[in-house]
Amino acid sequence: MYNALLLPDLREMLDTDDAESLKAVSAELHPATVADFSEGLSVEETWKLLSYAPFERQAEIFSFFPFDKQIEMVDGVGRDRMSKLLEAMSPDDRVDLLKRLDPEVAESLIPLVTRAERQDIRTLLSFPEGSAGSVMTTEYATLPEDVAVGDAVTLLRQQAPSRETIYSIYVLDEARHLLGFVSLRDLILAKATARVADLMHREVISVRADEDQEEAARELAKYDFLALPVVNDQNQLVGIITHDDVIDVMIEEATEDAQKMGGVMPITEDYLEASFLTVWRKRAGWLSCLFVAELFTFTAFSHFDDAIHQVIALAFFVPLCISTGGNSGSQAATLITRAIALGQVSLADWWRVLRHEITMGLVLGLTLGLIGFARAALTPASVLENANRWVMALVIAQSVAAICLWGTLVGSMLPLVFKRLGFDPGYASSPFVATFVDVTGIVIYFSIAKAFLL
Fold first, then answer.
1. pLDDT given for residue 359 in this prediction
2. Residues 298 and 436 sit within 8 Å (Cβ to Cβ)
3. Number of folded domains in the chain?
4. 59, exposed or middle or buried, with CB in 10 Å at 0-12, 13-18, 19+?
5. Which residue in 184, 202, 266, 403 has the fewest CB atoms around it within 10 Å?
6. Which long-range contacts (CB under 8 A, 24 or more apart) does 43-50 make?
């Protein structure tokens, strides 16, 4: 709402070159607010707005633009200007942008930044996508352990302008091995003559650079840190992951899991901004696979064709029984997949999960079976024809209970099986589980019906 109100004013300021007002907008508003207000501006107008702010401020505002707009702006500006902006951006935001640019464009920009920044960019780009190293920043504060607090504060003043955060300061030896950390609060409250070695916490929670970014996010959230150190194989500090990066990671991972569980391949673009072809391709793939799998229901029905002809009423209860398995399976798959993502369940817990879901499936099946029994018992005689009312009710109750139990077991075990095979548990999606249980549920239903009615 606010950007729609302010956009005409921004355009008027740009058209009249109202430098004082444009400088005030860029300097006084939060960078995210400036980025939001400039949403309707063209690439040229956006660059003109940024030109009224220092490069450091431009970099802050630029980092809040959607990636699609960032790429458009890179394409529409001279390389020299973009290289200066890259130097002013935080390392993690800079690398995120370069990863999304055309490789030739990215390679043409890297040589234009300073040698130190260039080395930093290539180091961060070397880490695999989705690893802790790929989302870390190299702008962290450090201190030696043998320095006095008074001198340490002086060193921090020198480092602060170029560091993303100084609330946690990491203590390193000459070889950059991580020895511990000390908080800014501890330094401020300590005597000036105290040594950093006496104040620092030696038990450091850290993550390896090659670990999964999701694991790093869980660690930082678990301990409620503002930042988490990232180390290499030799326990040398190579970067930190800050809380804002973790929020981005958790949103990204949660979105990806939700899309997979809904039977959609991950879509990184905004829903309304993604191309129609991209959305179609991401959705059509899974739908086609599921549709082919559902064709097996035809095979299952044809196998029990004689039972349907003898007791027509069996066909009326097929949706009731089959949907029970899909619903219970989807429930279990969602719960287990989320538990795996949060680290609450591991592959070693499969037996505990199985025992838990057997009990849960039996109780849920009994609950739904009683409802199914009551509904079948109330079926009009004209619908039942030659079938015995109470036998039919018993068949429906047993079928619902058995299919509910089966769906629960399938839904709870498939994510663990996928995890064991090296696939993302999110692929054990609700539609996948429902489709599998639909086919097998038909077999269970008609097998019970044939045993009691035919």
1. 94
2. no
3. 3
4. buried
5. 202
6. 43/69, 43/72, 43/73, 43/75, 43/76, 43/77, 44/76, 45/10, 45/11, 45/14, 46/73, 47/73, 47/76, 47/77, 48/14, 49/10, 49/14, 49/22, 49/25, 50/26
The Cα 206–Cα 215 span in angstroms is: 11
> What pTM was estimated for this model as a whole?
0.62
Residue 422 has pLDDT above 70, yes or no: yes
Please give the C-alpha separations between residue 237 and each of 139, 219, 251, in angstroms, as whole numbers: 11, 17, 26
Strands 227-231 and 207-208: parallel
How far is the C-alpha of 55 from the C-alpha of 51, rounded, in Å?
8
Residue type, 209: A
| 80 and 224 belong to one structural domain | no
In this prediction, residues 275-297 reach a mean pLDDT of 78
Domain hosting 153: range is: 135-248
Greatest mean pLDDT among 1-10, 36-45, 53-62, 136-145: 136-145
CATH number, domain containing residue 343: 1.10.357.20
Of 72-81, 215-224, 276-285, 331-340, which gets the smallest average pLDDT? Answer: 72-81
**Residue 445 in domain:** yes
Can you read off the two tokens belonging to residue 448? 């019970």
Identity of residue 411: G
Q: What type of residue is 69?
A: K
- Among residues 439, 452, 449, which one has the least CA distance to residue 307? 449
Does the pLDDT of residue 113 top 80, yes or no? no
Burial 80-103 (b: 16+ CB within 10 A, else e): eebbebbbbbbbbbbbbbbeebee
The model's pLDDT over 338-353, given as tens digits with 9 standing for 90+, comes to 888 777 888 899 999 9
What beta strand segments (E) does 58-150 contain?
140-144
